[in-house]
Amino acid sequence: MIDELLNTFRSEVAEPDRETAERIFALATRSATRRRHTTLGFRPRLALGVAVAALVLVPTAVAFGGKLADLFEGTPAPPDVSTAFAESNRMADNVVQQGFAAQWPHADVSKAHGVIEIQTPDGPEDLWAAPDDLGGQCSFIDFANDPPGKHGMSGFGDCPRSAPQPDEKIGFGDVWTYVHPDLLTIYGSVYVDATEVRLTFDDGSTATLPVVEHFFLGSAAKGTKVDSVAALDAAGNQVAARTLRPSGSTRG
Amino acid sequence: MGRSFEAVFEAEFASLHRYLARRVGAGASDELAAEAFAVAFRNRDRLDPARPVRPWLYGIAANLMRHHWRKERRMLRAYARTGVDPILADEDAAAERADAHARHRELATALAELRKDDREILLLNAWAELTDAEIADALGLPIGTVKSRLSRTREKLRNQLGEIGQEAVETR
């Protein structure tokens, strides 16, 4: 009786249509390809999401950027952030113990520290990092004003591969969530020596973000679309570039 | 992941999306399904091809759901209170269905009263059709724990639905 009742309860929800499936497939593969990272634990990312916008304006329809907090880099991670890294490690343990993967990056929680903080309409948004045991660096992004939960701060992160693909010099991700519905977080890693990245939006405008410990972080209004990313060295020379959306194409 | 990602998506998407939609609504289910598959896609070359992907996928979803369990409980309680399923509220006949699904209101009440971890196990079994062993894999729990909690939760639900049904009859 219970199973029948549960089944009919679920059956009231229609199966997703083809359009929804295609849209979500595009979202899943697009964002993943662009991030080129491994998620920092399963929990987050989307719970999180977000981003923001801030007020450094670029000549585009959206506000973008975020004012950098100069004193943030090196700040020891507070307990709620460390807990989030630890929770990610617990998930990594589970993945390995259950045999889903032979190894999975574990962050050194004791070395978790601040890398970038930007100011957004929803308050400070922080990127934290901690070295992992596979030679990479795990990152975690959260909004400082969000209340912590049982498992630490809500946020999202990745543990980039220690040996990225030879042809991959820039990892890129953008995340939106219900928690901060007006914002899109733009973040990534640069695997070559660079001091900033230049983003080119779909309307042709550009904006630059500083690279700190190989990471960059920005915030934009929901709906912002980045077409390409270029990494620049201290002299302003382009040292790497990545196209995210072929010219004239559409994204899901 | 033994099969191609596309094949896995084709095989699992509709079921996962529907599972999530029933629990947290269509909007959030889009987000959660996209994220769950994004995680799967990013890690497709790290996974053991000999292992089934479904428990892992639902395990990811379960972790993502942690941020939504209050919303789920709120929606279940709203359904129980009003008789209008908030998940179907945008559909034309949602209100008309209210009377026709009195038992679902009772079920919503009972589900809302469960501990969230017990609800997770129950629904992974009933809606995701995972076995006890697969639920244990998905959630990282000992299989004995899954078995005992599933049995206890079913018993609790059975008792509660019986009580609710009886109360409903008595008040008419």
Describe it for me?
The complex is a heterodimer of chains A (252) and B (172). Chain A has helices at 2-11, 18-35, 45-48, 79-97; strands at 64-65, 67-68, 113-120, 123-131, 137-143, 156-158, 170-175, 183-190, 196-201, 206-210, 215-221, 226-232, 238-243. Chain A has a five-stranded antiparallel sheet. Chain A contains four helices and 13 strands. Chain A is globular. Chain B has 172 residues and is mainly alpha-helical. Chain B is built from eight helices and no strands. Chain B is globular. The model of chain B is unreliable at 165-172 (pLDDT under 50). At the A-B interface, helix 1, helix 2, helix 3 and helix 4 of A face helix 1, helix 2, helix 3, helix 5 and helix 6 of B.
**Number of DSSP helices of chain A?**
4
Molecular shape of chain B: globular
Strand content of chain B: under 5%
Record field, number of beta strands of chain B: 0
The sequence of SSEs of chain B as H and E is HHHHHHHH
Structural class of chain A: alpha+beta
Describe the largest sheet of chain A.
5 strands, antiparallel
Mean pLDDT of chain A: 74
Q: What is the end-to-end distance of chain B?
A: 55 Å
Instruction: Find the biggest chain interface.
Output: A-B, 54 and 58 residues
How large is the count of helical segments of chain B? 8
Integer average pLDDT of chain B: 79
pLDDT < 50 runs, ≥5 residues of chain A = 31-67, 247-252
* Biggest sheet character of chain B: none
Helix-strand pattern of chain A, N to C? HHHEEHEEEEEEEEEEE
Query: If you compute it from the alpha carbons, what radius of gyration of chain A comes out, rounded to the nearest whole angstrom?
Result: 19 Å
Q: What's the Cα radius of gyration of chain B? A: 17 Å
Low-confidence stretches of chain B: 165-172
What is the number of E strands of chain A?
13
The class by helix and strand makeup of chain B works out as: mainly alpha
From the N-terminal CA to the C-terminal CA of chain A, the straight-line distance is 42 Å
